[in-house]
Write a structure and sequence with these properties.
Blueprint lengths: L8 H8 L3 H4 L3 H10 L4 H7 L4 H22 L7 H14 L3 H11 L5 H18 L7 H22 L7 H25 L2 H8 L13 E3 L7 E3 L10
Antiparallel strand pairs: 1-2
């Protein structure tokens, strides 16, 4: 484009969303949006070097940022902790478009995109935990995000097929899944008090002491969900 300000990634994404329901997260969507915005191929590649993959990830990350903003503004102090987790998942789905997510599920199911899709799911759950104040840096950092990833992914699948008013069935499903996780955490907490567990952690289990999280996320509202590898936060949030 000449004589005008360059098109930003967000502007391109917003225009592309009109094409995704018809062409999916694809080269066809990129080409149609490029023509609509009168951009050159070089300009589009500068914004999305990996093409449709980067476009799909941009949509996912934008949803994460909106979720973090909503969760940061919520009155979390008035909620039980399990309700805070549920709020994070619910907010994430409420800012998503079902048809765009359905297209994304098909796109990230392709073998060449599966790794990035898994990383995107993990990043969403990491953003929820971090925004809720989790500062764990040991094996708990991984187990919390792995557990929430299972809850989140199963809830997304249920939501995609839910036609109940206000998605009431989805929120009920989410509550049941989180109740299951909380029961598991209760049992795990009791196990930690057992002499057998303590003996294991004093012996073979000491290997887990060396497991560290890959760095904290900066939850500054101006940069939601961005990595801050130099964070010095310690401790754990139960």
């Amino acid at each position: 484009m000449t004589g005008t300000a360059p098109i930003t990634k967000d502007q391109f994404l917003n225009a592309a969303l009109n094409h995704v329901p018809f062409d999916g997260w694809s080269c066809a969507t990129l080409d149609a949006t490029q023509a609509e915005l009168a951009m050159t191929t070089a300009e589009v590649r500068a914004l999305f070097p990996r093409g449709a993959l980067d476009l799909a990830l941009a949509y996912h990350h934008a949803g994460d940022d909106q979720m973090v903003a909503r969760l940061s503004d919520a009155d979390l102090a008035a909620m039980r902790f399990r309700d805070r987790i549920a709020a994070g998942v619910r907010f994430r789905l409420e800012v998503a478009d079902k048809e765009l997510v359905r297209k994304g599920m098909a796109f990230f199911a392709m073998p060449q995109n599966a790794t990035d899709g898994t990383a995107a799911l993990w990043g969403t759950c990491d953003a929820i935990w971090t925004t809720l104040g989790d500062t764990s840096r040991d094996i708990n950092w991984y187990t919390k995000r792995a557990t929430l990833s299972a809850v989140y992914s199963s809830t997304v699948l249920f939501w995609l097929g839910d036609d109940s008013e206000g998605f009431a069935a989805t929120w009920a499903f989410l509550d049941r899944r989180i109740d299951n996780v909380m029961q598991f955490e209760k049992v795990k907490g009791q196990a930690r008090e057992s002499k057998l567990f303590q003996a294991f952690m004093a012996g073979p289990g000491k290997i887990f002491d060396s497991v560290k999280a890959p760095g904290a996320r900066d939850v500054n509202p101006n940069y939601p969900g961005r990595w801050a590898p130099n964070s010095t936060q310690d401790g754990d949030t139960k």
